[in-house]
Design goal:
429 residues, alpha/beta, Leucine-rich repeat, LRR (right-handed beta-alpha superhelix), eleven-stranded mixed sheet, two-stranded antiparallel ribbon, 16 helices, 13 strands, globular, LRR_dom_sf, Leu-rich_rpt_Cys-con_subtyp
């Protein structure tokens, strides 16, 4: 057996169960002994579960880095929903397995049930999974299924050492994530040949360069439906157009913080990815490059349900009206956080009149909105009479005015009820 990178299942901050709920950054670095100097600088590893430690909060607000923002952006897509069951981590059974020696655990009949082992192994970190895979054939088979599902390739920011595990066969991941890579030559030469990408469904580059060899290998099967290129400040319109031409089956595309992408790329994406349902263009440093033209083009996508344009301050009310005209019944998630040219003249009037009847999440933080009564009235109506309530997210600077107008609205409502009752009583008498 030859030495290749440590491979494990990934259930962490990359899981997207709630598209507007921040997930705190959790370190993905778990030290494992070196196997070969020849493979230094690269690792295939697992993101550890994003659990919340028990204890009191220090009350201090931490400043998040760009990569933390990219992972915990308010706009996430509903396609990834494999969130680790936090409650399960607290079950004594899992703790028993971790505390037992390998021989003690393997000798118990209960730990020979594959379904039970899979449930337990799914909460283990990659080093523990590697140890479990060497206990017996049953444990090896269960651990291998988890190992082969999701791969994370990352470069250690501390030592740069390679984390190693021996594998008999190629892995067949469904998700492949590259995180904070600087040089991919060693990976392409020594590790990529051991990875079969025919089953790959999701490919993610977080603050990492694009690896053409990986894209070409993944595009052969036409199974790739989700692509993330977040935090890439070097990719240009020309490169994006070339890249997207070979991915006609894309459903989800995340281009957050790609600061050189402009309207040119978006128009090309619409042309070559007609099945696209979700796209995120937020956190763009050169926001002037994304204008109403991009939204006009995206509105032509027949299946568009999720749109993130956070911080694109050149997008105006015109874009919202265009979305209403083209996607009034299909839009489910909309983030216009920081779009300072979007006003009450579009989003408030459209939403208040049930213009987006299937909209479930609306992020209006830091927009130029000042009239909230229509939105409050519509939110309460949806919550009371429909099975699909709408969640409206506002910024701290808007909160005081929002609550004030909400109190005024409820006061007006109570006054109207009392007037109607008095009128009814007087008519009866």
């Amino acid at each position: 057996m030859s030495c290749v990178s440590s491979v494990s299942s990934k259930r962490s901050r990359y899981d997207d169960s709630n598209i507007f709920e921040d997930v705190h950054d959790v370190s993905m670095q778990t030290p494992v002994k070196n196997c070969s100097k020849r493979h230094q600088k690269w690792s295939l590893s697992i993101a550890t579960p994003a659990t919340t430690p028990v204890g009191k909060s220090d009350g201090k607000r931490k400043t998040r880095s760009l990569d933390e923002d990219l992972i915990s952006s308010p706009l996430k897509f509903k396609g990834d929903s494999n969130v680790l069951d936090v409650e399960f981590q607290e079950l004594s059974l899992q703790k028993v397995l971790v505390s037992l020696s390998a021989s003690d655990a393997a000798s118990s009949p209960v730990f020979h049930i594959p379904e039970l082992l899979h449930r337990i192994f799914s909460s283990l970190d990659h080093e523990s999974l590697n140890h479990c895979s060497m206990v017996n054939p049953i444990w090896s088979a269960v651990a291998s299924r988890i190992i082969n599902k999701d791969l994370v390739v990352q470069q250690s920011s501390i030592s740069g050492d390679l984390k190693i595990v021996e594998l008999d066969d190629k892995v067949h991941p469904k998700t492949l994530t590259f995180y904070k890579l600087k040089n991919h030559k060693n990976f392409v030469e020594n590790q990529l040949p051991r990875i079969n990408l025919l089953r790959l469904d999701s490919l993610k580059f977080y603050i990492s360069p694009i690896i053409p060899a990986v894209l070409n290998k993944a595009a052969v099967s036409n199974n790739l439906t989700k692509l993330t290129i977040a935090g890439n400040k070097n990719i240009t319109d020309q490169e994006m157009v070339y890249l997207i031409m070979g991915l006609p089956n894309l459903i989800e595309l995340d281009l957050r913080a790609c600061s050189q992408i402009s309207d040119v790329s978006i128009v090309s994406i619409v042309k070559h990815c007609p099945k696209l349902q979700s796209i995120n263009l937020g956190r763009h440093e050169n926001s002037h490059l994304i204008t109403d033209l991009s939204i006009m083009a995206l509105s032509e996508l027949e299946n568009l349900t999720t749109l993130g344009i956070s911080g694109c301050d050149k997008i105006s009310d015109v874009s919202i009206w265009q979305l209403y005209n083209k996607h009034s019944t299909r839009m489910v998630r909309l983030s216009i956080n920081g779009c300072t040219q979007i006003t009450d003249n579009s989003i408030s009037d459209i939403v208040a009149n049930n213009g987006f009847p299937n909209l479930t999440v609306l992020d209006i933080r830091n927009c130029a909105l000042v009239r909230f009564k229509k939105l409050i009235r519509y939110r309460d109506w949806r919550s009371k009479y429909l099975t699909k309530p709408i969640h409206i997210h506002i910024s701290d600077s808007m909160k005081e005015e929002f609550e004030l107008q909400q109190q005024q609205l409820y006061k007006e409502f109570r006054t109207r009820i009392m007037n109607d009752l008095n009128k009814w009583v007087n008519e009866e008498s």
